[in-house]
Description:
The protein is built from 9 helices and 11 strands. By secondary structure, the protein is of the alpha+beta class. Strands 1-2-3-5-4 form a 5-stranded antiparallel β-sheet, sandwiched between helices. Strands 6-9-10 form a 3-stranded antiparallel β-sheet. A 3-stranded antiparallel β-sheet has the order 7-8-11, with no helix packed on it. A hairpin with a 2-residue loop joins β2 (30-36) and β3 (39-45). The longest helix is centred in the C-terminal third of the chain and has 22 residues, at 233-254. It is globular and about 60 Å long. The N and C termini lie far apart (48 Å). The relative contact order is 0.13.
Amino acid sequence: xxxxxxxxxxxxxxxxxxxxxxxxxxxxxxxxxxSTAAGQFAVKASATSHHIRREIAAHAHGMPGxxxxxxxxxxxxxxAGILVTEFLPGKLVEGTPAEHAPEMYRQAGxxxxxxHRPLAESTEYAKKLRYTTELLLKKGRGLLDAGMxxxxxxxxxxxxxxxxxxxxxxxxxxxxxxxxxxGRIKVIDFGRADARPWVHDLVRLSHQQFLGSAALEDAxxxxxxxxIGPAEDTIWRLENLNQAIGTIVWAHGIGDFAFRDSGVxxxxxxxxxx
Length: 274
């Protein structure tokens, strides 16, 4: 952390000890679980990542839903790039039996429904998303088979820029950001939170945990109280194209070739779906 970040942390918390370090070196982000005389806290800091400021902004109006389901912001400095939240106890769902338990997905669906507070309708969102996806396709040259690149470009060009209702999305809603504590789901990491259509938060799940598991998918939508239908077809396909191509480009850029390959598989599924 920078000198300014360290000074702020000491000013806010006083003496503290580090219980665990969950930092993300590839994203230049320090993530710490610390203990103080006043309790335990989670600390996030970065001198370069815009995700810190997004997370602070996401907390600005408070988190909806049952108490203890989302982190509670205690201190923050957007200028210094650091925030402190109350520590949420629990174990990550990803990689545990809970990742395959329908009840966990029912709860996760209900929490997402609470999180998705309606904002304004936008006539610009789809236009901007299509434009950024076009830029990603250009960066994907040489990373994708020419035929797949052409099909993705044709698919993108055929999608109209429809108006969409925006909500407060999480941005990375999947088991690696869910905690399980005594059979209860909690949600962490709001560094990708933003105003988007509600279907944005369903893309990753649909290409990961829902594949071949109707029970998990059904439980999630039961909790959420709504399924993706014909009204969302256009923005759903656009979100899928954007996230698939974005995964390929980003993962290649940091040298995570396994994740890049998962993005290619994701794009193949999108293009194969009529």
